[in-house]
Specification:
The complex is a heterodimer of chains A (77) and B (407). Chain A is mainly α and 77 residues long. In chain A, 57% of the residues lie in helices and 0% in strands. Chain A is globular. Chain B is α+β, with helices and mostly antiparallel strands. Chain B is 51% helix and 9% strand. In chain B, helix 5 packs across helix 10, helix 10 packs across helix 11 and helix 11 crosses helix 13. Classes of the chains: A mainly alpha (77), B alpha+beta (407). Chains A and B meet through helix 2 of A and helix 3 and helix 9 of B.
């Protein structure tokens, strides 16, 4: 599965922004995602990656699709 | 105080937190007792601070129903569900201030007085032990849940065809509605439960009594308001009682000397032990207050109208308030624990919870002394922050001996 594309689609769905505005190197705060939207994406991430208890604060530390994808790839190994 | 400092920051995703939150809470209390946690809100850990805040008039409670009102358009975006989170939680007294709070408390308090609790509890214990007589395997959480089910069934008078399994799911999702770190997928499930739960009380004398009392008090409550009160009545009487009883029995069964003590002690000593078990288990681990004025504590400025998360679990293990706080001290006195909160929002069901323990501990331990905790299996705790819940406590099986003796 392409994590970048999955995140892009998911963020577009949760923010109601057009998908072509969800760029891989733009910070999540620019998409106006509140904490509830981040939790909602984290919940789906846990189930598709089969990782338990993902700390939602990774969205603050790895705050773009590209950075978060790197984090996910490292944790899948 | 910020994330870049080297001081510890409260974060329930710290490794091992859900299995045992107390180590992380101790670190927070000792190293950084007032700070902004990982959820970007203020956290308090010391008994002194929390006790003072709970008992002061200068703080309000946060409004859960209003939070849902603001979030419902997002939660139900592209969904066919009927949004009911805000309505379903509108009359939950722990989230109400002023006259709203006073009125719901008056209704619930009055309705509680009309029950013969001792006879309900005695008959629930009888039914419980009849259900278990022939079983050799036993799960302590299921055992506690069945007991509380028998109690709440009589107390709240819900329909016979509503099973324990169904009540457990309903009560747990309502408890989770108050937690933090909840995604919209779970809120959608909670919404369905709240709507389903309106049917639980269709023939309930408890509900009729709530309507009668609210009419006597001249409160113009809608059907949804009444349903909101019956929903919180069930969650509060089922979930917290099940949780505190499970942990209390678990701790007693871990310590053989406590088993003997419970069986032999007099009523006064038992009551002192029960308070200690409430302190130790703290089923409600956090509560929230809003400061009506700017605050300055320990030279930390907190602007007014901030959300303050008070860790009751930490306060109840604070060595400045309790010597040897991680041990159950059978005759601990004084015991100024905060398991039931404090001040205007002191737990409405505290006396019921105490009575439950007073009536059930001796007969339950008498029954359970023939069992042992199955140490081959790790105890699993739910991923819940505000209300700590253990999923399962398997017990083995000197129970087989019991069956042959009885049978």
């Amino acid at each position: 599965m392409n994590i970048q594309l999955w995140l892009q689609e998911k963020i577009a769905e949760e923010t109601d922004l057009p998908i072509n505005e969800i760029l891989f190197d733009v910070e999540f705060t620019d998409f106006n995602m509140d904490s509830l939207a981040i939790l909602t994406i984290t919940f789906d991430l846990e189930s598709i990656l089969n990782i338990e208890e993902i700390d939602p604060s990774i969205f603050t530390e790895y705050n773009t699709i590209n950075k978060l994808t790197t984090w996910i790839e490292n944790h899948q190994k | 105080m910020d994330r870049k400092s080297s001081k510890i920051i409260w974060n329930p995703f710290t490794k091992g937190y859900f299995q045992n939150p107390y180590e992380h809470l101790k670190d927070c209390r000792e190293q950084n007792p007032i700070h902004i946690g990982s959820h970007n809100a203020w956290m308090f850990f010391r008994h002194d601070d929390i006790s003072r805040i709970l008992r002061s008039n200068e703080y309000s409670v946060s409004d859960l129903s209003k939070y849902f009102e603001e979030k419902e358009s997002y939660i139900f975006n592209n969904s066919n569900a009927c949004p009911y989170l805000a309505s379903g939680t509108k009359k939950w007294p722990m989230y109400l201030n002023g006259s709203d709070h006073k009125n719901v408390r008056a209704i619930m308090g009055k309705s509680f007085k009309e029950f013969d609790l001792p006879s309900i509890l005695t008959s629930a214990i009888d039914s419980l032990h009849q259900s278990y007589q022939k079983d050799s395997d036993l799960d302590l959480v299921d055992y506690c849940a069945l007991f509380i089910y028998f109690v709440t069934k009589q107390f709240l008078n819900f329909d016979d065809d509503i099973s324990l399994k169904r009540i457990k799911k309903y009560s747990n999702l309502l408890a989770i509605s108050q937690d933090i770190y909840i995604p919209k997928q779970i809120y959608q499930k909670i919404n369905s439960e709240l709507i389903w739960g309106k049917g639980i009380f269709s023939n309930s004398s408890y509900k009729n009594n709530i309507i009668k009392i609210s009419n006597e008090l001249n409160l113009d409550y809608s059907e949804d308001d009444i349903d909101s009160i019956t929903a919180i009545s069930l969650m509060a009487s089922f979930e917290t009682s099940k949780d505190s009883l499970s942990v209390a029995l678990l701790e007693i069964m871990k310590h053989p000397e406590l088993i003997d003590y419970v069986l032999e002690c007099d009523t006064k000593s038992l009551n002192i032990l029960i308070e200690e078990l409430f302190r130790f288990s703290s089923p409600l681990q956090y509560t929230v207050r809003i400061n009506n004025k700017d605050l300055n504590i320990d030279n930390i400025n907190i602007p007014k109208n901030s959300k303050l998360y008070l860790s009751i679990a930490s306060a109840n293990r604070d060595p400045n308030a309790f010597s040897d706080p991680d041990k159950i001290i059978i005759d601990r006195k004084p015991n100024d624990h905060l398991a039931f909160g404090g001040g205007a929002h002191f737990c409405l069901g505290a006396q019921i919870a105490r009575q439950e323990m007073r009536y059930c501990l001796k007969p339950m331990i008498q029954f359970l002394k023939n069992y042992k905790i199955d140490t081959s299996k790790e105890l699993k705790w739910s991923r819940q922050i505000f209300m700590r819940t253990i999923k399962s406590i398997p017990l083995t099986s000197s129970a087989k001996k019991l069956v042959s003796i009885n049978g």
